Amino acid sequence: MNLKHRIVSIMVCGALLSPAWMAMGQTAPPAADAPGADAPAPPAGLKTLDQEVQGLKKDVVDLNKDLFVLQEELLFPANTQVALYISMDVGAFFALDSVTVKIDNKEVKNYLYTAREADALLKGGVQQIYLGNLKVGRHELVAFFTGKGPVERDYKRGATINFDKGVGAKYLELKITDRVPKHQPEFMIKDWE
Amino acid sequence: MQGVINTLRPLLLGGLLLAVPFAVSPAKNVKPDPNGLAPHAVQDLAYGDVLFYFFEDDYFDSITRLLAARQLGRIPHTPDEAELLLGGLYLSLGEHVEAGRIFEALLNKNTSEFVRNRAWFYLGKVWYQRGYLEESEHALRQVSDKMDPRINAERYMLLAQLMMRQGRYDEAITALGGWHGAPDWTAYAQFNLGIALVRRNRLPEAIPYLDRVGNMQTRSEELLALKDKANLALGFALLQAQRAAEAKPILQRVRLEGPYSSRALLGVGWADAGMGEFKRALVPWMELRKRSLLDSAVQESFLTVPYAYAQLSAMGQAAEFYNSAIESFDSELKRIDDSIEAIRSGKLLDRLLNDDKKDTLTWYWQLTTVPNAPESRYLYALLASNEFQEGLKNYRELNFMSRNLDDWRDDVSAYDDMLDTRQEAYNRRVPKADAVLAATNLDGLTQKRVDFESRINEIEKSNDVAALGTPEEQKTWARLRRVEEYLTAHADDPDLSDMREKHRLMKGVMYWRLSESFKARLWNERRSVKELEGQLKETQKRAVLVRQARVGTTLTTGRYAARVAAVRARIDQLHERMADISERQNLYLQSLAIRELQGQKQRIETYELQARYELAAIYDRTSNGPPKARPSTPPTAPQDTPPNSPPLTPPNSPPLTPPTAPQDPPPDPPTVKP
Hints:
The complex is a heterodimer. By secondary structure, chain A is of the alpha+beta class.
């Protein structure tokens, strides 16, 4: 075998050893040097570890779920629980900066929004802004919304609702919607029975 | 450079979300959905809450809340959408088995074709990336053709790639041969078809396809890379087929500043050498030699340069370059050894994740910077690999979850304290409650109320108007009755006749007054009885509650305490498993890194051995007489030409970019680039 041939062999060897396509910044090519030699199903050992990792992660997720439920039942039992949510519909006329919530004239939440959170609301997310406890009976909720209104003007508006807290959990939704005909945002509070 | 799956994960959810928003989007003014499903208002607040975290890319919180909401029955209106999202979220954690189970369950239900197609498609895609090829093919074949054309194109491409990964080139050729789609996807299809034909030794048929891709006009960086790959693949295939003259111009089409330029330069040199033009071959090879020795093409050039000099009978220069190569290889081997030792010390992953933001789990995470350590320079290729990135992601997620468990452990301790405090408060209140209950004769009070009602009935029945008079009236009425009795006793006394008349008059007035207010007073009394009845019932209810609470509080506290104890045990147990699996994951990634370095080392050792051998041969020839030129092998000699370096060609050509690759996707914008 002459030198050239040997170099070629080296090159081949190098090619086999070095996933050059990776270094080239590409994703793993599905096809290989030889049929089935490059990208077979993961080796059995890897599959096992992968499966163990998957199983562990699922158990942690399940535990988190159980802890989440336990925490809510323990700290906010249904007979006293009150949950406030906030949602935005479109948001063309209002960019949310912050929300302040008062229940029975006592401030229970003052929340400043990051761009990412405001964006999550715009995409259709509904944020649970407050979870607390209230006695059975009549209560008043007042929410103040601040942000940028039409034409980038500072904007502050309030909304209020009187509601009855019964023996079950109470859900209230603070809704920001666009009132298209008036080119103004609208703020409402919905009592979810 | 990251593995496909890193890109794939966001794509998956992005795609899934095409289905999801219909369930929740509260927007009324958004543009119509491309798939024709109208958005509607929030139906389940809890699901909206899940989506809030999802849209924030906080998938761990999102999945936790989704599972909790599902368990608490808070997503009654959009269960299928929630399940679809749950499957996607499991995928985000790399839990494709669980995701697959959910998707398949969903697919067995009466879900829309749209949802079914999406679920099968993304499931197939994930399985493909994780190497579960049979499962992937099964899933991809479940997708009907009534899909978005771009997704459908991607599906066909995945199927073709899958066949190629399994060596089923003929099937891939058939599948790709008749396929038509958008221009970008067509380029990938033609490239893959060309590669499949080369693999089946059908080069003449492959040439038009690869040549077409290699000549395409584009400004897209992604397609320019594909173009380079096609030229590289075709160039090396031609070299392999001993058609060096045809190979050279094709290899020269590869961009000099692109990621494939080193391989192309190497190939151009071989093409010149193949034509016996060793002096020309030195031009690209010398250029290559100036580049980083980490590149295998550069390493090879350290041997090809002296080889060319030897072919040109310049033995002195050949010896000089071989010596230089040996020195460079020696230094490189030493550095690799040091790096392997550094990795074995176990700090690699910690260093890699040192600057990582640890607060959330998102699909978008990938390692973008490498630590400033000697071993880093060898790991770029490794870090670009899907296997390593996925493993690293797993390791990072396990770290995140370990911290999550630590946080919960603290919270659970607080719950214990809280339950203890509740129990203490209960213990303090019980004696007071018992005393109040003991002092309260509810049965006696009830009997009194019954008696009172009977008395009212009697008064009404007997029309005893005086019975409901005011105390003053009753006093007056009693005096009148006493006067009346006296007058009756002295009925014959004529002196009392005036008195009798007065008494009659006064009694008449008094009776009139009492009769007049009798009905109103009777109504008031009955109302009082009713109120008393209501208060008694409320009192009885409270007493029952107090008695229940007296017994129940202990039971409830006990139940909570048991649940807290159970979750604490689970936390401890998961912590142990976490430590064990994290360690194994660490070792596995270390082994990948060491394997990569050892591969590089082995290659360089082989090169070094070749260099030493050739150097010795040159010295040997020199010492045995005047140097003679090595017989130059004719470029066409089959055993000599680079093309005989068989597998280098197509394999080293960067073949078959999966259309799902980060920069590849000629994708469906809404689905692929969420």
